[in-house]
Design goal:
three-stranded mixed beta sheet; three-stranded antiparallel beta sheet; 9 strands; elongated
């Protein structure tokens, strides 16, 4: 019996022994509710175990032990807090407190995908681990999947779809979660599950719970937004190489991103994309002695030299990241008359002769080229994140 439920029952039984007739009636009712809930959880575990046995035959374990280790280390922190469920709000799904013995399995596949099963079985693909550009992004996916399990979304789908028998659930999972044909015999239930309000409510609730879980464990929930944005951004090119399987069950949307951001604002947490993903971050690397190259994502910006170029590059990197994290407009980037480039009237960079020398250019030419590059990055950023999609 699960610890939380056992403790709850112990308190009820102690009260039951008190002798008061009214209290006994209340306790008897509570005991029946607890026992009924335990049966539901046992059924979750049975269904999850049955489905996991099916998937263990379909997938091979990851050949990269580092991926499994990375997932387990992050997931252990999240699962510990998830099982406490202290003060967490559930938008849709199970609100009663209970504990799950989570099992995280990384499988050998280039697909960018992850899914959870009843009872706490969570599968993560190698491709998703590789696609995650930070522990925060990976934690965002894992927290989302943990919430699907802890909020018992499949069980609630079954309740809303009254005709669905528990015997069909593993088959439906096979079709919904992996896109295979294993669940076709479930007929229209698969289509119904994915097109009715259940999928939307489940995703929004898992996002909200995931953000709460990330905050409680010290991860940055901005990563949930950037992961979705990067999936959407790279779908056109990557789907030619790998199957973006996570799109089937977790379709990114502006509404989902906005909901996460709204929750972050309510908790005074700023959206700082540069903190959680390399795609929207300015970095500086030394490409030859005394010269540092600055890039936004993979786009080259400019190089800096002079006295203490490392410190200069570090200061510029912070200043530019702070600027890009505000998602600026192109027109907000302007130039001055002494080698400066401004962002919203604040200094971003001032080039001197040392910078011009390491770039084999002139101060004026560097100023012009840098302003064009920064404007291009601002345009690309606004286009590829949800704010820029209108």
């Amino acid at each position: 019996m699960m610890l939380a439920t056992a403790l709850y029952m112990a308190g009820s039984l102690a009260l039951f022994a008190g002798g008061d007739q009214d209290v006994q009636k209340v306790d008897a009712k509570r005991l029946k509710e607890i026992q009924a809930f335990e049966r539901e959880l046992d059924e979750d575990r049975r269904i999850g175990k049955e489905a996991a046995e099916y998937y263990d035959q379909q997938f091979k374990p990851s050949k990269d032990p580092a991926n499994q280790k990375r997932v387990e280390e992050i997931a252990a922190k999240l699962a510990l807090v998830a099982n406490s469920q202290a003060g967490f709000k559930t938008l849709w799904g199970e609100k009663r407190q209970f504990m799950l013995e989570y099992k995280f399995k990384v499988v050998d596949s280039k697909d960018i995908n992850a899914f959870s099963l009843p009872g706490g079985y969570i599968y993560v693909y190698d491709g998703l681990v590789k696609f995650s550009q930070s522990d925060d992004e990976l934690a965002g996916v894992l927290a989302h999947e943990i919430c699907h399990a802890s909020q018992r979304h499949l069980a609630y789908m079954q309740k809303e779809q009254g005709k669905m028998g528990v015997i069909q659930i593993p088959l439906i999972l096979a079709s919904i979660l992996t896109g295979s044909n294993a669940g076709l015999m479930a007929g229209s239930l698969v289509g119904t599950a994915m097109t009715n309000g259940w999928s939307v409510k489940a995703e929004e609730s898992a996002d909200n719970g995931g953000a709460q879980l990330m905050i409680a464990t010290g991860y940055n929930p901005t990563a949930m937004i950037t992961f979705m944005e990067r999936l959407q951004m790279e779908q056109g090119t990557m789907e030619k190489v790998v199957d973006l399987g996570i799109f089937r069950t977790h379709p990114p949307s502006r509404k989902r991103a906005e909901s996460i951001e709204t929750y972050m604002k309510s908790n005074s947490i700023p959206v700082r994309r540069s903190a959680v993903t390399a795609s929207f971050r300015v970095t500086a690397t030394e490409f030859k002695p005394g010269t540092y190259l600055l890039k936004f994502g993979e786009r080259k910006l400019f190089a800096v030299g002079g006295d203490n170029p490392k410190a200069k590059a570090a200061e510029l990197t912070k200043r530019l990241n702070d600027f890009f994290d505000t998602v600026p407009e192109m027109y907000e980037i302007t130039i001055g008359d002494q080698g400066e480039v401004f962002g919203r009237s604040k200094l971003l960079v001032r080039f001197d002769e040392d910078d011009a020398e390491v770039n084999a250019s002139t101060v004026q030419k560097m100023q012009e080229d840098a302003s064009k590059a920064l404007r291009s990055c601002a345009f690309s950023l606004a286009y590829h994140i949800w704010e820029g999609r209108g």
